[in-house]
Amino acid sequence: MLQAVALRCSRGERRLFTDLSVKVERGSLLAVVGENGSGKTSLLRIFSSLLPPEQGSVLWGGQDIHQLKELYSGQLTYIGHLNGMKDDLTPLENLMSAMSLAGEPCSNNGAKEALEGIGLKRPIHHLPSKVLSQGQKRRVALARLWLSTRPLWLLDEPFTSLDQAATDVVTQRLLMHLQRGGLAVVVTHQEVALPTEVVQRLRLMG
Amino acid sequence: MSTGINWLKYSSPQAFYPLAGHLIPWFACVAVALMGVGLYMGFFVAPTDFQQGEAYRIIFVHVPAAWMSMFLYVVMAVWAGIGMGLNARLSFMMAQAIAPTGAMFTFLALLTGAMWGKPTWGAWWVWDARLTSELILLFQYAGVMLLRTSIDDVRRADRASAVFALVGVVNVPIIYFSVQWWNTLHQGASVSMATGSKMASTMLTAMLLMTVAFWLYSIAVILARVRCVMIERESSPVWNDEKPAVIQETVEAR
Amino acid sequence: MQWGSASEFFAMGGYGLYVWTSFVATALCMVWEVLALWRRRAAACAEQRAALLGGTDETTA
Amino acid sequence: MSGSSMWEAVSGIIRRDLLLAMRRRSDAAMSVFFLVIVVSLFPLGVGPEPAVLRTIGPGVLWVAALLACLLSLGRVFTADYLDGVLEQMVLIPQPLALLVGGKVVAHWVISGFPIVLLSPLLGLQFGLSGESLGVLVMSLLLGTPTLSMIGAIGAALVLGVRGSGLLVALLVLPLYVPVLIFGAGAVTSSMAGIGGEANLSLLGACLVLSLFLAPWATAAALRIALE
How do residues A117-148 score in pLDDT, each as one tens digit? Predict the structure, then answer.
């Protein structure tokens, strides 16, 4: 269970949010919505432990994530607004190296299946990533979700530059993750097409 | 204990600001007084040196400046370390306030070193361990300050310059040792600057007086600068002791 | 007292240039630092006052 | 986390960086070309007098190696920072300092090791004798990893900062001074017939010290840069 306790965050002089508390149970998704610059990404980065909160703390299973350190990063898959992939490597190489670095090494076939799962056909797997479109690059980054066995997913605007078909596939994948008892925090400016009972919405006012 | 609580209270900028304001005049006055006494001792009481003649009197500013430059760097690094360890804003502010004064003393140590070297060694600059370390120290002060000014986000600037200050603290002794080593290899100028045991006691007294004066001056200046830093950083609440009531009224009237 | 006259004092046994440059430079640096701090403080206070009177309402979350 | 998965992550980082360098070979070649050009400029500037060249040779070679290393520092973290690989790296469930060590090893293999390999040729240009050439190679072999280690701290500190190219030079060059002194000193003293062992062991000490301290400082700097 992921819990935020009285978080406060400022960027520069601007106070983004203060005294923010929220709880995400197993099998549910927290959709963080709000205008640009309202602190959605900052909140996600606080959840990921990249950004220490100015005040307050994030608890994972009741323990502070800054004490858990690597134990906590072993629980999560974070996909930021940057895709975290190299233009000079092929989608397949990108995916496989990302997975093996994250400590969840996958086989060649497993990676191919994941890429196909998100709708990238075989010929694309071996092209250098720099020739891919934005949407295709985003799909390569999201293909990690097909291989991830981590309970907590942190996604920053996962649907950006995805077409409707890919959006649906990713949503299905999210639903499957939740049904297996996973948790997710998704920053998004559009509606997540999931049953309302598993989605908890958090609107940041900025 | 009650004293412990008192000290903790001053670790917050809001409480430290007025405290610093009260302390500055005292440090400044004593610094000026001691400097006066030190200069009098240095010029009128201390005798002429056998070997160096009157030129030796430069050490009354050179040695204190050199000591302060090294000492302030260490103090800056300590504040930086405390800031990193405890995530204390006041510590970072202190580190920020110390750097310019430390850099100034480093510059003065180099300048007066050259002034002392020309008549004594016959050269403005000699690559001995002390001068070289001072030079590198100046670069490191410059690095700390430049790193801070080139990062816009205050929090990141604080922490990045703290890391560099801490790395530098390891570097300076290594440089000192390495240049000394290098000089033995090149049989260069292994000249000692301190006149050491031969120093008359009045010379020593004058030098120590000047050192204490420089020390107090540094404290006063650094406290004044840390107050500036506090005002610059806090946009909203004023700890300004200059008529806060008037500002209050204007805001309400608007 | 070891100086016979004022000119002897300023000559510093022939090293006057070096000695006085050192001391004057030190004094100038210190005075300059104090003045710079003074101005910095005045500027910071003025800026803060302007910010307060100008009323930046961003702080209300 | 077991030791094997730790090793897996570190070697994974090294392999990926080497693979990327293979895809962009011109990048790695550039710092080597820079070294050759800078070193070749000196005889043209000072004149062809063999005795003079032999005297300045070790210093020139070492300063040039230092500058070549400095120029390549931008490549250590900048690309990873911009494309988001760095934030993924920070979130790998392994101690960040170790992963940083992997990055630095890769950087050294790409831009430090070619310098070591090339140095005997450049030494010949300055009329260094066979034994001195051996000491030169040894000193660079011990010294360039230290340069990469220290340089990584600076590279991490200036990530995403305006004017980072010049700033990293100002930060890192003072830290390079001891390595320069011991490295050039080793060659000079072997030429003087004293033997370079003492200097070489001091270089080794610098390497060990930087291996212990630099990754932690770099990891701290990276976390700060990503906040």
Answer: 898 888 888 899 989 999 999 999 999 999 99
Specify the number of domains making up chain C: 1
Could you give the CA distance from residue D212 to residue D207 in angstroms, rounded to a whole number?
A: 9
Q: How far is CA D14 from the centre of its chain?
A: 16
CB atoms A97 and D83 under 8 Å: no
Query: How close does chain B come to D182, measured CA to CA in Å?
Result: 7
| pLDDT tens track for A50-81 | 998 888 999 999 899 988 888 999 999 999 98
Starting at the edge strand found earlier in the chain, the sheet holding A55-60 runs A14-24, A2-11, A55-60, A63-64
Q: Per the CB < 8 Å rule, is B146 touching D167?
A: yes
**C-alpha distance across the termini of chain D, in Å:** 25
List, in order, residues 6 or more apart from A204 with CB less than 8 Å away: A16, A17, A32, A33, A34, A35, A38, A39, A40, A43
CB contact under 8 A, D225 and B156: yes
pLDDT reported for residue B9: 63
A·B CB contacts under 8 A: 5
Beta bridge partners of B53: B49
Separation of CA B183 from chain center: 28
Chain B residue with minimum CA distance to A14: B235
Q: Hey, where are the domains in chain D?
A: 3-226
In a mutational test of the B interface, the residue from A8, A9, A10, A13 whose CB has the highest number of chain B CBs within 10 Å is: A13
Query: Does B237 lie at the interface with A, CB-CB under 8 angstroms?
Result: no
Cα A100 from chain centroid (whole Å): 18
Q: Count of CB atoms within 10 A of residue B157's CB?
A: 19
Please check whether residue C10 lies inside any domain of the structure: no
> Is C40 part of a structural domain of the chain?
yes
pLDDT in tens, A11-34: 877 788 889 999 999 999 999 998
Q: Which residues of chain D have pLDDT under 50?
A: 1
Q: In what order do the strands lie in the sheet with A152-156?
A: A76-79, A152-156, A183-187, A29-34, A199-204
Q: B142 with D203: CB under 8 angstroms?
A: no
Distance from CA of B221 to the nearest CA of A (A): 27
Which residue among C12, C40, C48 places its CB closest to the CB of B238?
C48
Q: Per the structure block, which two tokens stand in for A205?
A: 């006012």
With respect to residue C2, please indicate whether it lies within any of the assigned structural domains.
no
Q: What's the gap between Cα B249 and its chain centre?
A: 41
Q: Which of residues 83-122 of B touch D (CB under 8 A)?
A: 84
Cross-chain Cβ contact A12/B235 below 8 Å: no
User: Which residues in chain C are contacts of B61 at CB distance < 8 A?
Assistant: 22-23, 26
The answer to whether the beta carbons of residues B99 and B145 sit under 8 Å apart is yes
User: What is the pLDDT, as a whole number, of residue B248?
Assistant: 36
Structure pTM?
Answer: 0.89
ipTM confidence: 0.89
Cα angle for residues A61, A64, A68 (degrees, 5° grid): 85
Give the separation between CA D124 and CA D129, rounded to whole angstroms: 8
pLDDT tens for residues B52-81? 778 888 889 999 999 999 999 999 999 999
> Hey, what's the torsion of the CAs at D4, D8, D11, D13, to 10 degrees?
-140
The Cα of B3 is separated from the nearest Cα of chain C by a number of Å equal to: 31
How far is B120 from B104, CA to CA, in rounded Å? 24
Task: Give CA separation, D103 vs C3, D25, D99, D156, in Å.
Answer: 67, 17, 6, 12
> How far apart are the C-alpha atoms of B54 and C16, rounded to whole Å?
8
Residue C36 lies in a domain: yes
Quote the domain boundaries for residue C43: 25-61
Q: Which residues of B fall within a CB distance of 8 Å from A12? A: 152-154
